[in-house]
Amino acid sequence: MRYLTAGESHGKQLTTIIEGIPSHLPLLREQINESLLRRQGGYGRGKRMQIEKDLVEITSGVRHGYTLGSPITLVVHNDDFKHWTDIMGEDPIPEETKLRRVVTKPRPGHADLNGGMKYGHRDMRNVLERSSARETAARVGAGAVAKVLLKELGIEVAGYVREIAGIVSDVDENLNLAERREISEASPVRTFDEKAAEKMMKAIDEAKADGDSIGGVCEVYVEGMPAGLGSYVQYDRKLDAKIAGSVMSINAFKGVEFGIGFESARKPGSEVHDEILWSEEEGYTRRTNRLGGFEGGMTTGMPIVVKGVMKPIPTLYKPLQSVDIETKEPFQASIERSDSCAVPAASVVMEHVVAFELAKAITEEFPSDYFPRLKKAVDDYRKEVKEF
Q1: Cα 162 from Cα 187, distance rounded (Å)
Q2: What's the distance, CA 160 to chain centroid?
Q3: Number of structural domains, the chain?
């Protein structure tokens, strides 16, 4: 199971092609649109979210509400493209017009300069349009399809915010996934602690007024993954490593941890590892879940808990210094439309990239051409590991 995305930030459309989804999986356009609209929400989002309403068009791989087993194509059209046709259109334009629109001033914290060096672009727009976080809408589309697959197998995924600008939201660790989702989705910053949420929103407002941006920490919580997914036998088969890589691929993410993560470096082993329990009703469980549902690169059957660190967005309204690549003169970096804080939206993106990695692991482990056969194989495996 894999996917590719295509499209530029201000281009005509974003396209996602997903291969490896089993046939006969019930799939509706509305299920994908729900995820896309969630990505556009959250306190701190900029004006662009008022211009674009991301809605998906399914152009292949689904017929009469069910997947065919062939590649699924998702298209999200850019309603604002009519204002960008001359800048982003595929047809040639006069050289003098092109020269007036060339972007030669790379912005710190973006891919502009490095991407220009790599691909030989003297016009930074050729880099910034693709490296933009706008591309994550296409990834959320892929993750939305994956979430449908997981849900049909009894696996649920939820993403929310744990921290913004150093303000930490407390959460009752005994809350189940449904409770975490309900509480966080009712919050403008997708978190649990109302007092912390108020402080977060105040910090976002202050950053916006100051022309600055702030980052934070997102968390994804997963229930229902059976034990033993992933593998210890090779480094590139460890499922937690694959998830970490997918989270780090999200724009502006700079760190990942599972369970108590970096805190484990400051604790003795007796306060880090999860004691093993057994009961006839549940089979094998753990007394705690400090390792976030993973041991040896494999799932333990406990909830998966993974956090991702998002840096502040680098597009600032009090721009940082850079250098014009043509004149080599210093300048204050240019401004594209931006958010003062995108952490609530990023939690939705993280939720969906994690979901895709989990669905991929499932389809690699079990026969996955035909969904009823896949479901039976997963159900049989659950029974097998419970009786181990």
Answers
A1: 12
A2: 11
A3: 1
Q: Determine the structural domain holding residue 27 and report its residue range.
A: 2-386
pLDDT tens figures, 176-198 = 999 999 999 999 999 999 999 99
Closest alpha carbon to 242 in 251, 254, 231, 233: 231
CB 36 within 8 A of CB 144: yes
What lies within 8 Å, CB to CB, of 386 at 6+ separation is 282, 283, 284
Which of 169, 165, 157 is closest to 304 using CA atoms? 157
C-alpha 150/C-alpha 357 separation (Å) is 11
Beta-strand (E) ranges in the chain? Answer: 2-6, 13-19, 56-60, 62-63, 66-67, 72-77, 156-164, 167-168, 216-223, 253-258, 276-279, 283-286, 294-295, 298-299, 304-310, 321-323, 330-332
Closest residue by Cα to residue 259 from 202, 201, 224, 302: 302
> What does the pLDDT average to over 141-153?
98
DSSP letter at 9?
T
Q: Within a 13 Å sphere around the CA of 281, how many CA atoms are in the beta-carbon half?
A: 0
Contact 351, 358 (CB under 8 A): no
pTM over 0.90: yes
Specify the CATH number for the domain of residue 198. 3.60.150.10
Question: Is 256 strand, coil or helix?
Answer: strand
Q: Which CB contacts under 8 angstroms, 24+ apart, belong to 117-124?
A: 122/325, 122/326, 124/325
Q: Give 211's pLDDT tier (boundaries 50, 70, 90).
A: confident
Nearest alpha-carbon partner for 202 in 49, 341, 46, 315: 341
* CA dist list (Å): 287 to 158, 178, 196, 200, 304: 22, 21, 29, 33, 15
**Coil, strand or helix at 307:** strand
291 Ramachandran zone, left/alpha/beta (phi>0; psi -120 to 50)? alpha
What are the CA-CA distances from residue 291 to residues 38, 192, 265, 303, 356 (Å)?
29, 22, 12, 10, 21
> Based on C-alpha coordinates, what's the Rg of the chain?
22
Q: Using one digit for the tens of pLDDT, what is the confidence trace for 70-117?
A: 999 999 999 999 999 999 999 998 888 888 889 999 999 999 999 999
